[in-house]
Amino acid sequence: MDIIELNRLVHTPIKQNIGCTIHNTKEELLCGNLSADLQDLLEQRGVLVFPQIEFTDAEQVAFTKMMGQFLPEIDGEEVYNISLDSKVNRKSEYLKGSLYWHIDGTMNKRPIGAAILSSKKLPTWGGNTEFCNTYAAYEALDDDTKRQIEHLHVAHSAWTTLFYYNPEPDQTKLKEMMAIGETELPLVWTHKSGRKSLVLGATAHHVIGMNWTESASLLNSLREWATSESFRYSHEWKLGDAVMWDNTGTMHRAMPYDPDCGRLLRRTKTAGVEPII
Ligand SMILES: [Fe+2]
To answer: What is the pLDDT of residue 86?
Structure first.
């Protein structure tokens, strides 16, 4: 009887096009029997919410390892502090770009697969994390638009995000961000599964070979579409919540909050398994 219970995933959708709340206990999640079903559900729903599950760092690492190939930070750190508070995160300046819609790791050969955030300290105001489903947004486009964008490629760069939060950077800062590199990515990602998703976000600079005005208008209209109400979920954190997202089929952003309030999320992530093609 116990075994049957441990193998059953209990969940409810949050919105029609995105999000799912998982009701299983921490023990059920950590036993590993639900991992395959959770992975399928993550790909379908984009975001999984584990209300007040209260993962310790060790439990979060263990759970992340069940959901894919664990990906530590570049310096080997397993769990990363997400906070705009420089007392909590030495690289908080870089996180200012996270206030704008983006996919993690578009500069990498393979963007990260999935990420998990656990809430450790709430903000005094604001600080929701928002997600949008870029599979669902693509699938709901009309056929003419799908045909129009099917073969387009977009120049992406980390330095493009700099101008979102620092419109007049000094040359040293700009060069530092430019050193991260640039890449060209298809506007429509055809996944190994055959599903397609939109590749947009604050790193997107321009559509290759397109007039600049048309390019800006197209990227803006697709971003507006993909992040519109029916494809978007805004998570209001409660202490101990964990939220997992499929980084290959969603974009996300943090909503503004007091940078000095100590708001803290702990992040783990899995490696991406396919490049954007
Ligand atoms: Fe991010």
So the answer is: 80
CA–centroid distance, 107 to ligand 1, in Å, is 13
Q: What is the pLDDT of residues 185-236, one digit of tens each?
A: 999 999 999 999 999 999 999 999 999 999 999 999 999 999 999 999 999 9
For residue 202, the model assigns a pLDDT of 97
Percent of the chain past pLDDT 90, that is, above it, reads: 90
Query: Among residues 3, 4, 2, 22, which one has the least CA distance to residue 12?
Result: 22
Cα-flanking dihedrals φ and ψ of residue 205, to 5°? -100, -55
In this prediction, residues 106-125 reach a mean pLDDT of 95
What's the 180 CA to ligand 1 centre distance in angstroms?
A: 16
In the block, residue with structure tokens 């980390």:
158
Tell me, in angstroms, the distance from the centre of ligand 1 to residue 23's CA.
25
Q: How far is the CA of 98 from the centre of ligand 1 (A)?
A: 5
- pTM to 2 decimal places: 0.95
Q: How far apart are CA 82 and CA 244, in angstroms?
A: 14
262: left (phi over 0), alpha (psi -120 to 50) or beta: left
Q: How far apart are CA 103 and CA 202, in angstroms?
A: 8
Q: Which residues crowd ion ligand 1, with CB under 5 Å? A: 98, 104
> If pLDDT is split at 50, 70 and 90, which confidence band does 4 have?
very low
Ligand 1 center to 122 CA (angstroms) = 18
> Residue 115 Cα, ligand 1 centroid: separation in angstroms?
9
Rounded percentage of the chain residues whose pLDDT exceeds 70: 98
Q: Where in the chain are the domains?
A: 13-269
Domain 13-269 CATH class label? alpha beta
The answer to whether residues 257 and 124 touch, using CB atoms and an 8 Å cutoff, is yes
- What's the gap in Å between 79 CA and the centre of ligand 1? 14
